[in-house]
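Need tokens for this chain, all 367 residues.
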Amino acid sequence: MVMLMTRLAVAAALLSLPLTAQPAAATTATATAAADPMQVYGAWHCSDDACTWAKVRDLAAFDTANHWLVDRGDGRPSVNVVVLSFVNPLRLLDGTTDAGNAAGVPVGMNQQVVDYFTAHGIRVMLSIGGITYTGDWDTALARNGTLLGQKAAALAGRLGVGIEIDYENSSNPNLTGLQAFVTAYRAAHPYDASGADPTARLTIDVAAGDRWLSGIDQYATANWLTTANPVLDYANAMVPNKQPSASTAIANWQEHLDGKPTYSPAIPPLAPAKFTAGLYIAEGSQVRPECVNFANSVQQATGSWVRSAAPNGAGSTAGLLGFMFWAAEKPSTRGVTTAPPNGCAGGVGAGATAFAVPVPMPPLRQS
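Here are the structure tokens for all 367 residues:
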């Protein structure tokens, strides 16, 4: 995902769309019931303060703002994973305690918030980085990538969560330092194909296609995301600077399946089972159809492709792992919120029904 300022680069406003109830989703579900369900279907979560999580939330108020995530309208959750965004990597390395952080972790990312989701069968992860903290990633990795990985592993163990790497340096990423981070994390929490250990879930964000964050994309695809010797569980193909059309979205995601053989070094193809597709639900001043109107959404229009995309040089099974949505609650200071009266049960929740998303998340495909 792209944090804060890049999230604000949005297109012209759409007409407001009413919350769509379940019947539209039920029709789609009937038409697509024969397809394999998506395994990953989740949302990045920014709390109510534009992704800083700098205050402890009142749990009753938090539930009011986020109940759609745990109840799509029939008692079942709308998602099977939530990624709390963002932890500042340099503060984590330094163990900073200040007005918004305790020992390097945003105070709002606490056990009660984690338990709120896990009590409903929703997996929880913490995202380290975001574009605002790119420079802090650079500093932290240059200083001690191994120690940063160890601290991330300890944080995961303390809260019972997974970790997402969101390092958005497209020009000169510190891949040596990032390798040290991953090695240290995996020393504490080895890769777990069963998915039973939540702390072993370690993922990375890449761009919507292969043409941005190319260095990180190339290194991660070649070294960490192979099906023969997996190190990371999967990559998230993030959202571009505005919501794409269905055709543009598919073209972006296809780049990961194809790789970039003419690049130097070449980006190898990525197995469909090793990445998810990202879409907006809240974008600047707009609540998208992806949030409130599944029938008119990009996830509805691209869902068949996402579930059936064929391998093209990597992997042996068809279909991406699923969708991730940017972002629950309030991803920008002057932007829209997914809290009531909005809520995304009619978009994300209806999609969970249409795509027969399993909750809790099952063991992920490995090939």
